[in-house]
Design brief:
The protein has one domain (14-74, 100-189, 220-266). The protein is built from ten helices and nine strands. By secondary structure, the protein is of the alpha+beta class. It has a seven-stranded mixed β-sheet. A two-stranded antiparallel sheet has the order 6-7. Helices cover 33% and strands 20% of the residues.
């Protein structure tokens, strides 16, 4: 393949070359990684999302665990999303589907995460909006608990990933996509911190019911700043080429602990 004029184009990216890049970045055999990916940022990937997942599995090996957020925003309370006329909200609530871990599609999570969600052996947490998919040795432990009112807090897979000393792997995306930093928001106080009402259709004795709860209003607006400060302070962020894009590898526990102290000092000033 070449560009016009006979000049060679960028070399295609393959699953083995991606696996080599991930290993060079620092992804370890047996490790647990929560992955955020932009497929288009990785270049011309032979096999697309299938190749990316194959490379991730090769990098962590059979003893490793891969985790991805597979959120389903389309099932949120329409009052939270403000995407429809308020007069429609009762009708929307009446007809929203019940969350099904096996069949509910993810939304805005990207092609890699949606493919990963559908693979045999992948487990998915029970939250109707903020679910995580996991495959590998510790998958069941990661997704076993996911409280409705704690989608990113202590009752979520993020708290388990903190305890497991997992890594965040950003492939072609920046720290604004780093879901683990939402756990830090739950663990500290800062000006303007507040909760919002959300809800979903649930089954109670086989019958549809609308259930509402209060959850933390989260924001990723300063995630790039806190990640840069973490890197400058600790030196624990690794960066390198992955395909045609840039990969970042950050340890969850030190990152979240750093952000837990950073947010109170820098938010709401």
């Amino acid at each position: 393949m070449g560009e016009r004029g006979g000049r060679p184009g960028p070399r295609p990216v393959t699953a083995p070359s991606l696996a080599q890049d991930l290993t060079a970045l620092g992804v370890r055999t047996g490790s647990t990684v929560i992955v955020h990916t932009s497929l288009s940022a990785l270049g011309w990937v032979v096999g697309g999302e299938q190749a990316v997942v194959a490379a991730l599995r090769a990098a962590v090996g059979p003893a490793g665990t891969i985790v991805m957020p597979v959120q389903s925003w389309q099932l949120c309370d329409p009052a939270l999303l403000h995407q429809t006329d308020p007069s429609w909200w009762p009708l929307v609530r009446e007809h929203l589907p019940v969350y099904d871990a096996a069949t509910t599609p993810s939304r805005t999570m990207g092609a890699v995460a949606e493919h990963f969600r559908t693979l045999p052996g992948t487990l998915r947490s029970a939250h109707p909006h903020r679910s995580f998919a996991a495959a590998g040795r510790l998958a069941h432990e990661v997704v076993a608990r996911h409280d409705l009112s704690e989608p990113m807090g202590e009752g979520s897979p993020l708290a388990v990933l903190h305890d497991l000393e997992a890594d965040v792997l950003l492939l072609g995306v920046g720290a604004a996509k780093c879901t683990a930093l939402h756990l830090a928001e739950h663990r500290c106080e800062y000006p303007g911190k507040h909760r919002v009402t959300n809800g979903a259709v649930v089954l109670v004795d086989g019958q549809r019911r609308w259930r509402s709860w209060q959850e933390l209003a989260v924001s990723a607006d300063d995630f790039e700043e806190v990640a840069d400060d973490f890197a400058a302070t600790t030196g624990l962020r690794r960066t390198g080429a992955v395909g045609a894009g840039v990969g970042q590898l950050l340890p969850v526990r030190p990152l979240v602990d750093h952000a837990t102290e950073w947010f109170p000092r820098h938010r709401g000033g």
